[in-house]
Amino acid sequence: MTGLRLDPARRRRSVPARSGSVPARSGSDPARRRTGPARFRFDPARTGRRLLGVLLLAGAVLSLIPFLWMAIASTHRTGDLFHSPPPFLPGGELLRNLARLQDTVGFGRVMANSLGIAVVHTVLSALLSAMCGYGLAKFRFRGRGLLLGAILATMMIPLQVLLVPLFQMMASLGWVNTYQAVIIPFLANSFGILLMRQGFLDFPDELLESARIDGAGELRTFYGIVLPCVRPQLGALVIFTFMTQWNSFIWPLLMLNTEDKYTVPVALNTLTGLTHVDYSGLMLGSLLATLPLLVVFLLFQRQFVAGLLGGALKG
Amino acid sequence: MAVQTPAAPPVPLPAPARARHPRRPRLTHWIFAGPATVLFAVFFAYPLGASFYQSFTSTENGRTTWVGLSQYARMLHDPSFLDSMVNTGLILVVQVPLMIGLALVLAVLLNQSWLRFRGTWRAVYFLPAVTTLVAYAVVFQVLLKTDGGLVNQTATALGLSPIDWLNDPTWARVALIGSMTWRWAGYNAVILLAGLQSIGREQHEAAAIDGAGTLTTYTKVILPQLRPVVLFCVITSTIGTLQLFDENYTLTKGGPDDATLTPVLYLYKVGFQQMDFGYAAAIAWVVVAVIAVISFLQFRFFGRERKR
């Protein structure tokens, strides 16, 4: 992961002289531009760049429109959304939409459920992944190869295969419509374990030995010395896990069946199924559903991308 | 006697050595690897086995009977299942190449050194991938609403006739493919971009010195090196497509006329609306088999460097 430069701007700062793709330098060279009648000369490289820039801009606008629409629509009345022309500026209905959303599905509770479930799941899952990854990376024991192979194999199996037996299991445990039914079954995360194991492999054994010599217990060594050293991987994993759990839909949909337990995706799904769909409320709900991920993304862009790249590298 | 004298000061090496290198308790590793292993056994291995067994059974009136391969045979004559496979195939053939192609173009553009504010561009293109899965399907549902949806309003303003996006079988597929591409193209582009950035600037320069144009540099030098990353994107997108549920469940519930039905959505309906657990399990295992075969083929044909 370290070999990858996730932040292009950083590299540009460090190698300013070399920026500019080689065959196409002439366009940006001020000395060339000043030479007489060449002002109106057709410069293919320059035109090409302009064209690509426009293309890029168009794509960016397409990327952003649904977001903008989501934000604008959540501040208008449903009736006004589908008039021609549609509203282009924010309106004044945000609070009323919010209140209605609270009335229909208790959206505050729903957000709290989602947040609580995602945080607890993420903390436990990341901890388990780190511990298991450490066990696999730093200890030799009988069955290690088998365990590693099994973990790799689980990555190939889609969750859908487990749905029916897991559902029956939850039913017989009496866990249907409980938080633990959503939190616990997918705590052990093979992607996370492999990611953490990769991080621990580089950790020097000598350091472990000296910690043991100094009398630190195994768990203290792990939490006090080893874990802080893999903070980048752990950060990436935490973000990745949080996002996965926040987005998780099919399993909570099966498990949770009263409004007081709903997570955000399940609540949104319920809203789309009503006879009179409250579109502006729905858009506000979608906006609120996206907001936490957006905040995490904007704050931790590097770890965010690193998390999703974890699988792409070292493969 | 005399021989023993040199060793007389009893150097107490062995004992302290043992104290300084205490033997690790035999089971320490299980403190670390144990909890996850137990969870895997309970919530993964057991249900996996159970579902495999279930796929050979049938439950009627609360009684489970062994029916051999008949659940699997049922699929061959089940129009809904066959439709779901056709739809998935269509998405695989149209959406995945479209999206990966778009992502590649984007990644190459975002990797251009003349581009200013590259971090911002990258973030903007990545944003769709940050939307909550269900939320983005909901937003597209509203954007694509037949009367008054933003897309149809734009179409009308441009002089085109409005389209019944989510109620016409063909257009519903287009809508699904379009919204999936919106969500995932930037995501794949960022992965590919990271791959591109790990290929040094020197390679571009070396190719230029050898007289290669920009296009040749990319097709002959850069893209072949990007092959593993492209493969990763293709395989994850393929698996994602074969497991598609959230998007079409929210957008169209698989309709109209099963036009956007996928195997996972179908197994959800079979298992949890019709409570036909055996059949649902069998469908799930067919999905697993298809994923395994397709991933293997992709790995086989695109994974290796072509020999000259």
UniProtKB/TrEMBL annotation, chain A:
Residue ranges of the region described as Disordered: 1-39
Domain ABC transmembrane type-1 stretches: 111-300
Keywords: Cell membrane, Membrane, Transmembrane, Transmembrane helix, Transport
Protein's cellular compartments: Cell membrane
Membrane topology: Multi-pass membrane protein
This protein's record includes keyword Transcription regulation: no
CDD domains hit by this protein: TM_PBP2
SUPFAM superfamilies listed in its UniProt record: MetI-like (SSF161098)
Transmembrane segments: 51-72, 115-134, 146-167, 179-196, 234-254, 279-300
Main subcellular location: membrane
Family: Belongs to the binding-protein-dependent transport system permease family.
Protein name in UniProt: Carbohydrate ABC transporter permease
Lineage of source species: Bacteria, Bacillati, Actinomycetota, Actinomycetes, Kitasatosporales
TrEMBL record, chain B:
Record localization: Cell membrane
Entry similarity comment: Belongs to the binding-protein-dependent transport system permease family.
Species of the source: Streptomyces iconiensis
Protein name: Sugar ABC transporter permease
Keywords, alphabetical: Cell membrane, Membrane, Transmembrane, Transmembrane helix, Transport
One matching Pfam family: BPD_transp_1
Protein's UniProt keywords contain Lipid biosynthesis: no
Sequence segments annotated as region (Disordered): 1-20
UniProt-listed InterPro entries: ABC_transporter_permease, MetI-like, MetI-like_sf
Bilayer topology annotation: Multi-pass membrane protein
UniProt-listed PANTHER family: ABC TRANSPORTER PERMEASE PROTEIN (PTHR30193), INNER MEMBRANE ABC TRANSPORTER PERMEASE PROTEIN YCJO (PTHR30193:SF37)
Domain ABC transmembrane type-1: 85-298
Entry's transmembrane regions: 27-46, 89-111, 123-144, 171-194, 229-245, 277-299
Ribonucleoprotein listed as a keyword: no
